[in-house]
Amino acid sequence: MKFAVCVRRNFQTHKIEEEFTMTSIGKRVVAGLLAVSLTTLLAGCGSDGDDKQVIRISTAISGETSPTIQALKLLQKNIEEKSNGEMEVQLFPAGQLGNETDGIDQCRIGDVHMTTSNPMNINTAIPTLATFDQYFMFDDMDHALRFCNGEGGQYILDAYNKQGLQGVAFFPLGFRNLTNNRGPIEELSDLKGLKIRGYNPIQIAAWEAVGCNLSSVTWNELFTAMQQKLIDGQEGALTSFSESKFYEVQKYVTLTQHVFSTDILVANQEWLEGLDPEDREFILGEVEIAEQFQQEEMIRQTNELMKQLAEEHGTQFNELPPETFQEMREIMGGITEESIVGICGQEAFDTVMAYVDEAR
């Protein structure tokens, strides 16, 4: 099969280094039941006696307007149309085949060929991915995307080889930002005594280091806690701020952009490397087109959401002054670095951060 392709990344061949084993008997039972259900569900998903190549893609992400769902549907459409019907893409969104962990397990064993993965949810199995937890890792979205779409991004994508997978695309979700109802954050002194939600030891230590008071509040209790002024604010994604209607109890959003969050599209490594070279280049070329669409759509939707929040709900946005951004990076980044190095090791951390610097 011959197709016109344009592939940016160079995916190298690696041997699978280790086998994944489940240590819990309960997990084995659940996995067995899922495998039976999945086999039944996918029993009719092969070719209909012809030579059509079937590609199965799963994701726990839902929502027709999601940039990632739109990108996966574009990938499905382009592969099927440009292959003249010789390839069929079967898309299973909204957790139809299970949650994200299930998707990774299914992709590893080849029940599905691709799935989406958030580095934060698999960094115990692939320690290098813990580097994405570093506070103030990127200067802005342009910097983050230069990293993802360059050599640093490829280093991260190749880290999935440890589990018999190959990362093939970055589907960013955006940055975490700080919201509160006390006032815009312009200087470190504005953070002193600010009461915000704490949810894990490293996050608590990082924000306490710049003067905040952290309070353990569950996500379900957060709106009421802010409404009753038990706490002043929280830090999280802008989409969560909107979907949870935090704009009703939070007036100020400071674009701290302290943590970059992204999903990664991963493929079964054995399947990908076993493809005919022309087919592999064609599929990866279409993945790249979908990746570019997702990133552009994510930025468009983020800008549109900020405009909507400001116009319809009176939300006030402000950017951190460069000097404040740098002060917070030095203080908070030092705390998160210590924790991350404990997970991935100094060498992996330094390698990723060198790529980050190169992308500036």
Description:
- By secondary structure, this protein is an alpha/beta fold.
- Helix content is 45%, strand content 18%.
- The chain contains twelve helices and nine strands.
- Strands 1, 2, 3, 4, 7, 8 and 9 form a seven-stranded mixed sheet that branches. The chain has a two-stranded parallel sheet with strand order 5-6.
- Helix 6 packs antiparallel against helix 11 (322-344) and helix 11 (322-344) packs antiparallel against helix 12 (346-358).
- The longest helix is centred in the C-terminal third of the chain and has 37 residues, at 277-313.
- The radius of gyration is 22 Å and the shape is globular.
- The protein starts with 24 loop residues before the first helix and ends with a helix.
Number of helices: 12
* Strand tally: 9
Residues in β-strands, percent = 15-25%
| Percent helix range | 40-55%
Determine the N-to-C terminus distance.
40 Å
Rg from alpha-carbon coordinates = 22 Å
Q: Give me the strand/helix succession.
A: HEHEHEHHEEHEHEHEHHEHH
How would a crystallographer describe the biggest sheet?
7 strands, mixed
Mean pLDDT: 90
**What general form does the structure show?**
globular
Low-confidence sequence ranges: 1-8, 12-32, 43-49
User: Structural class of the secondary elements?
Assistant: alpha/beta
